[in-house]
Amino acid sequence: MQESGSSECSVVRAVSEAPVRDLRRVPIHPDHWYPLALSREVKRGCAHGVRFAGEPVVLVRAASGTVFALEDRCAHRQIPLHDGVVDGETIRCCYHGWTYDCSGQCVNIPYLGRERLPNGVRAYPCRELDGLVFVFPGNPALAESTPLPSLGSVASDAYKTRRYAREVACHYSFMHENLMDMNHQFLHRRVMGQMTAHTIGRRHGDDWVEVDYKLARETGRRPLGEAVVLGAATEPTETNEDVMTIRTSYPYQTLQIRNPDATLMLDLWAVYVPLDREQRRTRAYGLVSIRRPRTRVLLDIVWPLLIWFTERIFKEDRWAVEREQEAHDAQGGDWNHEVFPVINELRELLRRCGGSSARRVIPLDTPAASAD
Amino acid sequence: MQESGSSECSVVRAVSEAPVRDLRRVPIHPDHWYPLALSREVKRGCAHGVRFAGEPVVLVRAASGTVFALEDRCAHRQIPLHDGVVDGETIRCCYHGWTYDCSGQCVNIPYLGRERLPNGVRAYPCRELDGLVFVFPGNPALAESTPLPSLGSVASDAYKTRRYAREVACHYSFMHENLMDMNHQFLHRRVMGQMTAHTIGRRHGDDWVEVDYKLARETGRRPLGEAVVLGAATEPTETNEDVMTIRTSYPYQTLQIRNPDATLMLDLWAVYVPLDREQRRTRAYGLVSIRRPRTRVLLDIVWPLLIWFTERIFKEDRWAVEREQEAHDAQGGDWNHEVFPVINELRELLRRCGGSSARRVIPLDTPAASAD
Amino acid sequence: MQESGSSECSVVRAVSEAPVRDLRRVPIHPDHWYPLALSREVKRGCAHGVRFAGEPVVLVRAASGTVFALEDRCAHRQIPLHDGVVDGETIRCCYHGWTYDCSGQCVNIPYLGRERLPNGVRAYPCRELDGLVFVFPGNPALAESTPLPSLGSVASDAYKTRRYAREVACHYSFMHENLMDMNHQFLHRRVMGQMTAHTIGRRHGDDWVEVDYKLARETGRRPLGEAVVLGAATEPTETNEDVMTIRTSYPYQTLQIRNPDATLMLDLWAVYVPLDREQRRTRAYGLVSIRRPRTRVLLDIVWPLLIWFTERIFKEDRWAVEREQEAHDAQGGDWNHEVFPVINELRELLRRCGGSSARRVIPLDTPAASAD
């Protein structure tokens, strides 16, 4: 990966954007692992219907506890398999009882001889990691060689982690831009107080963009929530400020806050999964890990406050990105007038790494079969 | 009518469907009599607005008790006549008081001389039969020579009949296929228990398809509802099973159950009337007649149970056909992969007998008129 | 202005309408002053978001009390300015804090040097008059030379005035036609009793149409509401009837009732402002002025009754015009079959004076800017 840039250097000109396609119409690239559910949403012996960019997918947790993922339609009359019945390691459509195994193969039609079974439905590579069910919606031949993402400090005992999934009515790109542009602290002025972000460095490569901030408080008081998150009892001064690093490493995003000792205090991993074909609705998955203080139980005590605090911030961000999407829909194009170089780099990245065009799933080849 | 086929013979190949048009886009043929309301919905001295395939129709029961059917719009400013006022044998638009008789002729405009009355609106052939108001939406010249359907055992004193009308959010063809394919008993497993249908014969002609079934119970117990419907206290055995015959005689459908003595125990007549222009919403009309047992009052006693039972079955079927329609809309075409020959014959029939293309009603020629 | 016509003369032929465009697709002409809010809806220190024909407009009442009108979008990320914060005589976007003055100029971006500020957003000419906030959405060069409308008897102490604003789901032309065609009294038969309108004169010019009516009661009794409105205790006779004059002077409309002494008893001023781009939703603004009787307080006493009465009439009219719009949408064109010459003249007027085609706002030229 080529590194380049810093806060002193080049200006990304809006001019260069002229001939490029509308970022809000760039589909997410399917050749990555995306979480399509929290593990706890897929109960044993149950089927759970989800969507990736308009494609219906059923996640089945079989009797053995393993999860598999199929097209969420019966090959026969196309009704969703997620309303079917899990039977051992198979799923039966609830209408005429057609039965599929974890490879999507149709293994039984009650009123048809087994020698005449038609083709079944598509199966998706599927893996479970740290409480998320990941699916590889793209070219299945690439699944094996594509690593699952690293989910940050989740596995470490030194951190306490919260998992969340929230639906947001906008294109995934708005979510990336929202988190990366810390100049939007004005939006959170009621929760966070008046803060100003100072960019202190930025870097980028072929499939990533990264920026470092120091956040300065305009007034002296530090809100409770923030104190809790950063675990510091004393006011930061010019020399002992925390550093926040935000990185989009396509298609994932992280936000890390390190204290002056370079200890990782807060570690957020997030990804934004399109739900509908037009990619106007997104499910945001996140894992927020907070470093436990020396008196470890203190974090458990303030945890509910911390949840309230992050929910409040998320609600304000959601409001903003949904207004952005509405404006885009009404204006019929991308009128965004960005002046912040990091965000212009991020926009280039999302265009460059995005999918080529909207996917259209076609049924597997299904040779004629017949019975009586 | 040419008869052909039986359960032993030919296989209808999906291959032959390739070049044909999408069944779910075949409009129903308008040159038949269709019920547009239950008689009880059209009260004396009242107007009742309905739709046939997107065409607004007003049914007016005049002071004399006769029902007539007009386009449901005032020729003047197009607001619905069904919000108007029935005045003797005429209907007055509620806006400026334009008045129409049963032929659609405009017979009065309060502020215009009668010698200058403009043309009115279209009238539809309309007849009432056995509690249903039938309209002939197609070529009116064919109405006289087209017989009203026979409504089965409704008129016979030996049967008790229930009339129903239910809106379902799908193309009418899904309704025909649902009823005719008894292999979908798995859908009703909670209400009916585990049953298996065995096809014992099938026949078809130019405008009809018919299939006979024996239904075998996988477990011994017979649910109460079914016992009530079939009026038998004893368990069926291999030799004394009932026979169910389902027939689509375009555009109507019947289901009849005969006991081993060939006595007609249950007689269902149904038709599925498209409501919107795209024919994605349908009103299903049905008449279910059950043969009274020797102690006639017994049927009246179990009637509420019977209603509960059929409502429950209908609810499950509606769920399934609406999911099929949703899948068709999402997939943008007919991915149906049918393996059951009777249903493939039925699908051919519905294509062959269907209308040629979506109707578009244009206003009657209205020469200019003016007044002051 | 050329005057012509009277009730005796020419017939406007529907034939002449054949090649003209569908009236319901004629956009309102933007080069007039339109109220976009009641003054009381725009509170000091607050921003209020409204729409004109799909264009979002923010009305800002600054700290000084003056109202200004801008495009309702931040030039940066396009979210509505009406959710921003009024700061003195400026408005700040709530997301990243970009600040605009009353001319739409961007005067501050907290994280960008002032020498590099980008262009801002469009400002609209804006004036306040008699409790309404008027905006000139068309060519701003014409605003100065285009007079604000005269709002009738609002300013006179001899009258008591009610202001209202109501949203109606139809094209503005239906509103003009509804008020001008008094033959629709049948619609109000429950509130007004059976009345008949007699046209006693009509006139028109380049940008106006006017008609005089006498209203005759079919039955003797005069409803309370009407007696209150017209302030007369005695029954009208053939010789002392009131005269009602309705005028559309593009784009405004007035209705005046004079008693036999030619005293103006009721004076209504109204305008219908399209809200959405398709101009299918309209906000009707009205000022109804009623002449006070000699015992002035009597009018205050019956005022609530009068409000009830006018609300009821408005509700019935709204019902009718919304049904007309629905019929137009379903029929896909204008099937209106008008027989009343005044209304045909009005329809010609609305076509002639209407806008040429739907407006599409484009962003101001925004040269690239960048910062860090």
TrEMBL record, chains A, B, C:
Gene3D superfamilies: Naphthalene 1,2-dioxygenase Alpha Subunit, Chain A, domain 1 (3.90.380.10), Rieske [2Fe-2S] iron-sulphur domain (2.102.10.10). It comes from the Bacteria. One of its GO terms (molecular function) is metal ion binding. InterPro entries: Cholesterol_7-desaturase, Rieske_2Fe-2S, Rieske_2Fe-2S_sf, VanA_C_cat. Residues 33-135 form the Rieske domain. Keywords: 2Fe-2S, Iron, Iron-sulfur, Metal-binding, Oxidoreductase. The keyword Iron-sulfur applies. Pfam families: Rieske, VanA_C. The keyword Iron applies. PANTHER family: 3-KETOSTEROID-9-ALPHA-MONOOXYGENASE, OXYGENASE COMPONENT, IRON-SULFUR DOMAIN CONTAINING PROTEIN. This is Rieske domain-containing protein. It comes from Paraburkholderia humisilvae.
